[in-house]
């Protein structure tokens, strides 16, 4: 069984993902170790399957790099349990970089 997610990137992060702002992906509902799929699993799946360059600009220490805002259905992921949030079919997850060169 799988779940379908809409993933969006903004603030320049889309440049790391083939310059595509929006993606539709499917993930398994349950991970091989038997636990439900969460945002941490999603982050590593994105790194391994969609990220085209510079993984250090997206992932750091088993989570997103500081300066990346993560929204789950338009709500800050900090209010949803951050990486432990169990993704659900139809969720929209948005990653926005708040860091800009200058």
From TrEMBL:
A single Gene Ontology CC annotation of this entry is: cytosol
Keyword Ribosomal protein in record: no
Q: Which residues carry this modification: 1-thioglycine?
A: 102
Per its UniProt record, what InterPro entries does this chain match?
Answer: Beta-grasp_dom_sf, Mopterin_synth/thiamin_S_b, Urm1
* Record flagged with keyword Cytoplasm: yes
Please, one GO biological process term?
Answer: tRNA wobble uridine modification
Q: How is the protein altered post-translationally, as described in the entry? A: C-terminal thiocarboxylation occurs in 2 steps, it is first acyl-adenylated (-COAMP) via the hesA/moeB/thiF part of UBA4, then thiocarboxylated (-COSH) via the rhodanese domain of UBA4.
Name the domain of life.
Eukaryota
Say where the protein is mainly found: cytoplasm
- Pfam families cross-referenced by the UniProt entry: Urm1
Q: Where in the cell is it found?
A: Cytoplasm
Q: Which residues form a coiled coil?
A: none
Query: Where does the record put the Glycyl lysine isopeptide (Gly-Lys) (interchain with K-? in acceptor proteins) cross-link?
Result: 102
Q: In which pathway does it act?
A: tRNA modification; 5-methoxycarbonylmethyl-2-thiouridine-tRNA biosynthesis
Which keywords, in A-to-Z order, does the entry hold? Cytoplasm, Isopeptide bond, tRNA processing, Ubl conjugation pathway
What does the UniProt function comment say about this protein? Acts as a sulfur carrier required for 2-thiolation of mcm(5)S(2)U at tRNA wobble positions of cytosolic tRNA(Lys), tRNA(Glu) and tRNA(Gln). Serves as sulfur donor in tRNA 2-thiolation reaction by being thiocarboxylated (-COSH) at its C-terminus by the MOCS3 homolog UBA4. The sulfur is then transferred to tRNA to form 2-thiolation of mcm(5)S(2)U. Prior mcm(5) tRNA modification by the elongator complex is required for 2-thiolation. Also acts as a ubiquitin-like protein (UBL) that is covalently conjugated via an isopeptide bond to lysine residues of target proteins such as AHP1.
So what family is this one in?
A: Belongs to the URM1 family.
- Protein name according to UniProt: Ubiquitin-related modifier 1
């Amino acid at each position: 069984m799988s779940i379908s997610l809409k993933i969006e990137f903004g603030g320049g992060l889309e440049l790391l993902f083939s310059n595509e702002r929006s993606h539709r992906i499917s993930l398994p509902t349950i991970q091989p170790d038997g636990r439900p799929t969460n945002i941490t699993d999603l982050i590593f799946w994105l790194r391994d399957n969609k990220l085209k360059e510079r993984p250090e600009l997206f992932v750091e220490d088993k989570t997103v790099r500081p300066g990346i805002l993560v929204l789950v259905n338009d709500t800050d992921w900090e209010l949803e349990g951050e990486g432990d949030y169990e993704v659900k079919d139809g969720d929209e997850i948005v990653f926005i970089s708040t860091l800009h060169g200058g």
